[in-house]
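Narrative of accomplishments. A recurring question from our advisory board has been how the design workflow behaves on a single, concrete structure rather than in aggregate. To address it, we present the structure tokens for one chain from the evaluation set, followed by the sequence designed for it. No filtering or post-editing was applied between the two.
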């Protein structure tokens, strides 16, 4: 038996980099220099957005503290009515939504997978915030129906994505017979 196999040459560093590069839709080694430069600018812009989102989160936390302080010092002191509580919940939810958006940005930068389930969960949090702070007397029935339909659609989408993820992990954990 003779070995007629061609020798395997190890990949050079550019090929290794390309293989492990995240987000192939914005490659830093694109053949066209113009688009390569644009891709680098976009990647930098995403990093700037992540930094700005941290500032938004910190600003939101300060805002929540201020809202609670402001509500507690108004008469009657140290008592919150139901509107104060809902207003505070809305501020909390806004910060949590900002955290979820930051996680989306971080996952986008750190993985090659777009986190669809996390994006849908973030949208669900945003619509939940809207429902929590909603003044039902100020909106038309059609507007409320639209929010209900959006909530239902996002809930079903999240459930389907979660169910699909669970089924895939169950299929991978089944031992062959």
């Amino acid at each position: 038996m003779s070995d007629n196999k061609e020798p395997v040459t190890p990949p050079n560093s550019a090929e290794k980099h390309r293989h492990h590069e995240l987000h192939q839709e914005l490659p830093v080694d694109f053949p066209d220099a113009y688009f390569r430069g644009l891709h680098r600018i976009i990647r930098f812009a995403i990093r700037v957005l992540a930094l700005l989102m941290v500032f938004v989160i910190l600003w939101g936390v300060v805002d929540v503290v201020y809202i609670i302080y402001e509500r507690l010092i108004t008469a009657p002191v140290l008592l919150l009515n139901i509107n104060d509580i809902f207003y505070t919940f809305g501020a909390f939810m806004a910060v949590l939504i900002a955290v979820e958006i930051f996680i989306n940005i971080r996952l986008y930068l750190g993985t090659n997978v777009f986190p669809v389930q996390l994006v849908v969960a973030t949208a669900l949090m945003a619509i939940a915030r809207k429902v929590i702070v909603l003044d039902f007397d100020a909106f038309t029935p059609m507007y409320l129906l639209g929010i209900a339909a959006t909530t239902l659609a996002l809930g079903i989408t999240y459930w389907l994505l979660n169910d699909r993820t669970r089924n895939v992990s169950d299929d991978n954990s089944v031992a062959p017979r």
